Amino acid sequence: MITISTKFERPDPDLVKRLSAFSSATIHEAQGRLGALDSVIKPVDHRMKLCGPAFTVVCAPRDNLMLQTAIHYARPGDVVVVSGGAYAEAGSFGDVLANACRSKGLGGLITDTGVRDTQELRELGFPVFSRSVCIKGTVKETVGPLCEPVTVGGQLIRPGDVVNADADGVVVVRREDLTEAIAASQRRTDTEAGFIAAYRSGRTVAEICNLAPLLAAKGVVIDE
């Protein structure tokens, strides 16, 4: 007998909502340039965004048995995060399963393998982030774990950690670091807003970024 647990501690929904206000790049930079998944994992439509607790699952390459199981047990707002062996040549998720996810109110899907039916996924608007787009089908044979730590896109993701994704990429924030990540992201957002206002007022990059002493310290002489 194989026992698979679907229990884990989810983060405070209010903290998840507050984190969702920030871009993946802002969060990555704000938490010390940590948590960014490999850049090959991208949305099937640049308008797609998601932010929610990770419901993790391990699938064998070209096998989506456990992905379907994860979709069944995930709760509204959860983001299904699939470790599928970083195998690009498989279309393990498409419009049929996306409709199942949307009907359950799930927050999205992130996978290190492939997806298909991308036109239908775009029209549905369910957020899907994948390593590849591939039409090759899958089987339903191999049992694997749910709700255990997985490595996806070079990052360790635990069930209940929060994943935030947009057109630029995907970042993960550890559940216990949410409050600080939100505060740090707000500080960075405020600082960048100040830079933008300064540029719009006519100040130069050299002034704002203090370029002259930086270049001089590296022995650079500019002939103007």
UniProtKB/TrEMBL annotation:
Q: Which residues form a coiled coil?
A: none
The UniProt entry, under NCBIfam families, shows:
PRK09262.1
Q: Which family does it belong to?
A: Belongs to the class II aldolase/RraA-like family.
Q: What SUPFAM superfamilies has UniProt attached to this entry? A: RraA-like
What's the protein called, per UniProt?
A: Putative 4-hydroxy-4-methyl-2-oxoglutarate aldolase
Q: What does this protein do?
A: Catalyzes the aldol cleavage of 4-hydroxy-4-methyl-2-oxoglutarate (HMG) into 2 molecules of pyruvate. Also contains a secondary oxaloacetate (OAA) decarboxylase activity due to the common pyruvate enolate transition state formed following C-C bond cleavage in the retro-aldol and decarboxylation reactions.
| Record's subunit section | Homotrimer.
Q: Which organism is it from?
A: Streptomyces hyaluromycini
The reaction(s) catalysed by this protein are: 4-hydroxy-4-methyl-2-oxoglutarate = 2 pyruvate; oxaloacetate + H(+) = pyruvate + CO2
